[in-house]
# Entry
Amino acid sequence: MPPKLNVHSFPRPPLLEKTPRHLQIKWNNQLIADTKDAYWALETTHPPTYYLPPDSIRFPLTRSSHKSFCEWKGAATYWNITNPTNASEVVRNRIWSYEKPTKSFESIKDYLSFYAGPWDCYVDGEKVEPQPGDFYGGWVTSDIEGPIKGGPGTWGW
# Structure
């Protein structure tokens, strides 16, 4: 079992580094992403946010008009994806990337990050839980410990 990672020991500003972990995303038993070549961003009070290379995504994405801004990474572009087993179901704005990230995050240019749902996300075979709330996109695994930002009462942390 990997050592425990306490979210309160993660740095601010966030640390971006390659992770050797095996990441998979499955939707209705269809593998939509699979990689061992990802980055993770580690930020105080947040579980890791994973960034997958574009070539690991097995289904087409369409650009959304939705945008957001991260003080550390820059302007985010959002993406939509069509359910591989039901073409009438489109999930919007649950995937994002940075087309022109800040200098410290240039390594994740065009890499994609997924909220942990409606699909199932896995880290080294373990199904993740989403970061509390619906704003942040961290993935919680059994090796993550400490109070996590995102739920009620944590906005000002």
User: Anything to note?
Assistant: The chain has a mean pLDDT of 95. The CA atoms of residues 12 and 43 lie 6 Å apart.
